[in-house]
Automatic annotation (TrEMBL):
Keywords: ATP-binding, Nucleotide-binding, Transport. This is ABC transporter ATP-binding protein. One of its GO terms (molecular function) is ATP binding. Residues 2-232 form the ABC transporter domain. InterPro entries: AAA+_ATPase, ABC_transporter-like_ATP-bd, ABC_transporter-like_CS, ABC_transpr_LolD-like, MacB-like_ATP-bd, P-loop_NTPase.
Length: 232
């Protein structure tokens, strides 16, 4: 599903050049939940931004389901993000004045999905994440775990092939965080999507099919997660 080949990302600063990624190569298999771990500053968010088409590498190649991201212009990357990638953020990223159902419907509005179809899809997705009874509540009326569930439903709105999540449990307590991660894993199975999740929580890595570790902008280890067949 995702192929990263010898990717480097360099930033220019007043003190010279800073390398966030140095020759990173790895793959994410279709239908797999891959956890990306590493200390703060290891390059996790930079790598997610590159895979998600939010940034361009200084060198190297990235492919998503056969499409070369590095060969797309800004308009092409925008279309790719809108149609094939769902994002889940640590800070939830919900619009405060909209209800849960309306937040889930935002990506479909951007694609001009008809109102009736949009509303039905939003209801279905909120039911999938266990929030069917909270569709009309606004983010401020929901707990942190519930808000992140809405964010996961929103990420699925346009039936993406890939979900990218950057520290999705970072603002949640450990029990709520684990339940959100379990939900994400269940969604990967039931919806047939692929997920790349950055996390620093060892308990959450146990739920992944595979764990890729970054340190100082380099891959230092790629291993099966505890939930992968034969991992034990």
């Amino acid at each position: 599903m995702v192929t990263v080949r010898n990717v480097t990302r360099r930033f220019d600063s007043g003190a010279g050049q800073v390398f966030a990624l140095r020759g990173v190569s790895f793959e994410v298999r279709r239908g797999e939940l891959t956890a990306l771990k590493g200390r703060s500053g290891s390059g996790k968010t930079t790598l997610l931004n590159l895979v998600g088409g939010l940034d361009r590498p200084t060198s190297g190649e990235i492919e998503l389901d056969g499409t070369g991201l590095t060969r797309l212009d800004e308009e092409g990357r925008l279309a790719l993000r809108r149609e094939r990638i769902g994002f889940v953020f640590q800070s939830f990223g919900l619009i405060p004045i909209l209800s849960a159902a309306e937040n889930v419907g935002v990506p479909m509005r951007l694609r001009r999905v008809p109102v009736r179809e949009r509303e039905e899809r939003a209801r279905t997705l909120l039911a999938l994440v266990g929030l069917a009874d909270h569709a009309q509540q606004r983010p401020g009326e929901l707990s942190g775990g519930q808000q992140q569930r809405v964010a996961i439903a929103r990420a699925l709105a346009n039936e993406p092939s890939l979900i990218i999540a950057d520290e999705p449990t970072g603002q949640l307590d450990s029990e709520t965080g684990r339940s959100v991660m379990e939900l994400l894993r269940a969604v990967v199975r039931s919806e047939g999507v692929t997920a790349l999740v950055a996390t620093h929580d060892p308990a959450l890595m146990e739920l992944a099919d595979r764990v890729v570790e970054l340190a100082d902008g380099r891959i230092v280890e790629a291993a099966p997660g505890a939930s992968a067949p034969g991992a034990a």
